[in-house]
Amino acid sequence: MKILIIHTRYQMFGGEDIVVDQELNLLKQHHTVEVIYFQNHLGWRGAMQFLGSIWNVSSARKVRKKIKEFKPDLVHIHNWHFALGPLVFRKISQLKIPVVHTIHNYRLLCPSGILLNKGQLFNHSLYQRFPYTAIFKKVYRSSFFQTFWLSFIIWFHKKIGTWSKIEKYLCLTSFAVELFQKSNFNVPVEKFAVKPNFVMTDKTKLEVKRGNHFLFVGRLSDEKGVKVLIDAFRNSSYELKIAGDGILKQLVVDASLDNKNICYLGSIQNKEVRLELKKAQALIFSSIWYEGMPMTIIEAFSCRTPVIASNLGAMSSMVSNNLNGFHFEQGNAEDLIKTLQSFDKLSQEVRKEIQNNAYQTYKEKYSVNSQLSYFNDIYMSIINKRNEVK
């Protein structure tokens, strides 16, 4: 199968970029794959890209030329915002090539991209024909104009039918599919499929003895529920290790100085993250927004580490209560403590069973082996459907 991957890299290399590179490397082992990268810029160049993204003829022309040369069976687009632009979907459709789009965030539903504003869930845009509330609240980069322009781009392409040109939308979780169906996006459910992210396990079989502590790994920011985390563990008897960096770093540092049961590890690399996951009783995932698909949860499962997570969004889809982890009420420090108390009462046999369930979840849904079947099933169903129409 000949596949063309297209992705717009962010100004700072991040999670989506890592996912794209992983998928690209996997697909190249089994198919003929080529890739086109676009790059978002800062300053006046970035402003021009943003303004022109509504109808980016230059980017669309570049993609058209590549398709003419490569002649792919299918085009898979990840991030189109903003150096690529939505026009490319229309141009690919005109060439009679099926196009797939992975949805890594909620930008098509709301200019915020994360359905969170000032620390609170923000769902207004899901049900409004045009996201006026989001614009007035300046949910994108705290800018009235930028929020309006991004909203207008998505609305305009919805009006002219661009989003209907996409053959299949790949969502990371079933929750994301449900959100799109509840919203006014108006694309039939048949056009959606769930294709989760995955992680590579290390090949070393290093046995690590688990400690009695819990672990948080992630960005130290409001949306990750760091304040909830600190409130729960402060003055408790449970030990917590925190790894990461962000705007709330000083809050974490102060909490570690004032509470002997809280230890700040600083920012650590992936290899160290896996080691810490293997040492911990469970990963605490306290995020207060819906998330896309947290890679840290997948990493935890691959290390046989249960996850105690907010009962919200992607976390509710990934973590099965009392099976591979536990839920607690989003933003509720007291409920998190109650969940920790319940976990503490579990026998070693039950804990071992939950650890094995976590690893089984990884193998079935988020391992390299499972991913290839996801791709092949989705890609071939699209190509076969096109061939039947011909």
UniProtKB/TrEMBL annotation:
Group of enzyme by EC: transferase
InterPro entries: Glyco_trans_1, Glyco_trans_4-like_N, Glycosyltransferase_grp1
Keywords assigned by UniProt, alphabetized: Glycosyltransferase, Transferase
EC number(s) from the headed UniProt entry: 2.4.-.-
Domain of life: Bacteria
All residue ranges annotated as the Glycosyl transferase family domain in the record: 207-360
A GO molecular-function descriptor: glycosyltransferase activity
Residue stretches making up the Glycosyltransferase subfamily 4-like N-terminal domain: 50-202
The protein's name: Glycosyltransferase
